[in-house]
Amino acid sequence: MKSLSKTPSIPSISPTPLRLWPGIAAAVLILVLGYLLRLVAPAGNDVFFIVEVIAAMVGSLVIVVWWIFFSRAAWFVRLGAIVTMILALVAIRPLLDKSIAGGAMGGLGYILTIPALCVALVIWAMTSIHWSAAFRSATLVVAMLLASGTSTLLRTDGISSSGFDLRWRWTPTAEELLLAHDKDEPVPPPTAPASIPSVPTTAIEEPVSKPAPDLPAAPAPKQSAEWPGFRGPLRDGIVRGVRIETDWSSSPPVKLWSRPIGPGWSSFAVDGDLLYTQEQRGEEELVSCYRVSTGQPVWRHRDPVRFYESNAGAGPRGTPTLSNGRVYAFGATGILNALDATNGAVIWSRDVASDSATEIPMWGFSSSPLVVPVQGDDLVIIAASGKLAAYEAATGKPRWFGPADGGYSSPHLVTIAGVPQILLLSGMGARSVEPATGTVLWQHEFALGGIVQPAVIADGDVLISSMTFTGGVGIRRLAITRRSDGGWAVEERWTSTGLKPYYNDFAINKGHAFGFDGSILSAIDLADGARKWKGGRYGAGQLLVLPDQDILLVLSEEGELALVSATPDKFRELARFKAIEGKSWSHPVLVRDTLLVRNGEEMAAFRLSIAR
């Protein structure tokens, strides 16, 4: 009798044909909108970035739901694949670069890895239908490890309005290149003179409380420097008394010099031929002084601290402040230094985080010091994550601390109803305090806030902004009045969504506010908050106003300079010029005919032609 033999059949991935088309469609969505879109998207366009992220998230969710509920795969295969994906995520985390492993990015490594795993799952399902069970299992593990392993090859230089600034992991950062090649060091500054009292950071005195004075007329800030610090003499981003040529085709900006600089988002303080800024170099945070005319270093003060978060990178965030021959600088970890402006010698230093019992916030301490004359003395006032702290400028002795409220903005000296006061936007809204004691005068809650500076307009009303992590809520105009009993009344006049700054400051010119609505410039009428125009994409840039010419001088996120008309009739860009390379978030500075710009990699000076 003839023996019949059969070749055993290979078990299929599913007892019925797989339903593949939903997974394939979702994978194509991820590949086209989540990956390929960045190759054609214009720089500085946050819309494409939002589309990219949403496509990756939605596509990944669709693939997971499809696979579990609608793929028709055997249940042990469905669950096995999901478990393998989870194990791959867990296994890969210790191998990720620190810039994408977590922190302020919220786990960029997972944001990158999960879509890759989902696309790999679809490809594996398409190709492994008739493979043996053992081979399917082995190739699934390999596919998941390869897909997740791609994230270990990447690092990020942070985030911008265009998306995640991804780099190959083995490429050096700008800071590493600077440390390897920059040998241009100034002579170390001398130690502090014995005649100048020094307050060590470990000596914590109790704040000295002085009685509130009678309410005097507004004191003039004691400043001799042309640009004493953050956003100019009045912290309003307005350059008064300067007129420049606007035809850059015939009179373009002339580069005086450029040089690498350590990471950080400080702007400049300028006095004569000296400029002051802050930067990070390795494990040291620096307050640096350079020549305006040549860019050559004059002195550098170093503190052995380093702040880093993956969103904005390493380095200090605040801008130094000049007052009476001293430079006051507040670092990202909470060190407040008073230095001799001529040579960087330490006069006193404080650890504000320790003094105020404040934790270093997610994006670091970002306040720029404010020097305020009070009863014949000067106070240095800073905001430690929304908690105001005042120190005696002469000695560094603590004077008072305010309540904690979160936030990243800087204290703002304003005069309302003839009363000088310190205004701060914090995590919950606006708060105004009496400078000598920190006593709260008035406050106003307005959703989330605490990054953008406020503005006081001609009639004494206050403009504040509110933001969310998705872009912004808008601008609100407040009427602040003094009651007969000595208290204060706060009334909302209007709230506008026509201008929604995130971390980009706005400025005022002739009855209108100009600023960034997302990545697009916008102008609103101060009378009612109505938008007058919106146009031009400059990413997350910063701007100055030249009121003598009704001009905005814009530094785009991509390092381009632009002149834009600061008038309400329509958006008009007058000129554009490429200034520096790299993500540019720091405020530009214009002193006389010299424009200073910087980012986390480079700083440069340009001479602008003065209009005759």
Description:
- It is globular and about 85 Å long.
- β14 (370-374) and β15 form a beta hairpin.
- It folds into 3 domains: 21-168, no CATH class; 174-208 and 218-229 and 260-408, Lipocalin (Beta Barrel); 411-502, Thrombin, subunit H (Beta Barrel), CATH 2.40.10.
- The protein contains 7 helices and 36 strands.
- The protein is 18% helix and 33% strand.
- The termini are far apart.
- Strands 3-36-35-34 form a 4-stranded antiparallel beta sheet, with no helix packed on it. Strands 4-5-6-7 form a 4-stranded antiparallel beta sheet, covered by helices on one side.
- It has 612 residues and is of the alpha+beta class.
- α3 (75-92) runs parallel beside α5 (133-149).
- The relative contact order is 0.10.
- The model is unreliable at 190-222 (pLDDT under 50).
